[in-house]
Amino acid sequence: MTRVKIDNLGIPPLAGVCTYEEACKTGYNIDHNVNLLHRYNYSETQLNQIMAAHLAQVPEWEVKGGIGLHLWLDAEHSAMLRKRVTEMREPPLQLDKIPDEQIEAFFQEVIRAQDTLELLVGIYRVTKAELIRSMKKHLQETNPLSDHPTCRILKLILIEEEEMLSWGEKAVQALIRTDADKIRALSWEQHLQSILVASGGISGDLSKPADWKPVNPRWNGAPFEMNPIPRRDDRFKDIFNSTADFDGIYFDENRSADERVFALLFKRLREMDVPEWMGPIIYKTKGKPWEYYQDLSRQLWDEVRHSMMGEAGLYQDGVAFYSYPVEYLTSLALNTTAETLDAHLVLWYIEQGLMPKDTGKHFEWEVAKKSDNELAKNFQDYDWADEVLHAQIGRKWLIPEYENMEELKKRAKMVMARNLSEKSKLSLENSDQRVWWPKFLAEIRAGRDRIRKEAALK
Question: How many CB atoms lie within 10 A of CB 53?
Answer without folding.
Answer: 23
